[in-house]
Design a protein that fits this description.
6 helices; DCN-prot; ubiquitin conjugating enzyme binding; disordered C terminus; cullin family protein binding; two-stranded antiparallel sheet; Recoverin, domain 1; mainly alpha; 64% helix; 108 residues
Length: 108
């Protein structure tokens, strides 16, 4: 997290490597949803703690084991709509932006 208490894109990529998933893997978006992360490519310490607490994961091994459960959670009808709406907002990069490019939509 560093001194700023925020993991940036480099930190997220290193985290993904430790987790054995690509940074473009949809499970990282699911993790961001669970953390309620506000900015794409960054996790604050508060977001990080909130997400890991929700997943009951206090180490990398537990987090790896939690990912399949997180996928199931997202796919539940009552959660999927929230995840979809979150994903759209999360992929917006400018304040007044109302749509996302097709390239981004396919990745997100």
């Amino acid at each position: 997290m560093g001194r700023s208490r925020t993991a940036n894109t480099g930190g997220i990529e290193a985290f993904c490597s430790d987790l054995d998933v690509e940074h473009t893997d949809v499970r990282i978006l699911m993790l961001a949803w669970r953390m309620n992360a506000e900015r794409q490519g960054y996790f604050t310490l508060e977001e990080w703690r909130r997400g890991l607490k929700a997943l009951r994961a206090d180490n990398l091994s537990k987090l790896k084991k939690a990912l399949p459960e997180l996928e199931k959670e997202v796919l539940r009808p009552q959660n999927f709509q929230d995840f979809y709406a979150y994903s759209f907002r999360y992929c917006l990069t400018e304040e007044k932006q109302k749509s996302i490019d097709i390239d981004v939509a396919c990745v997100c």
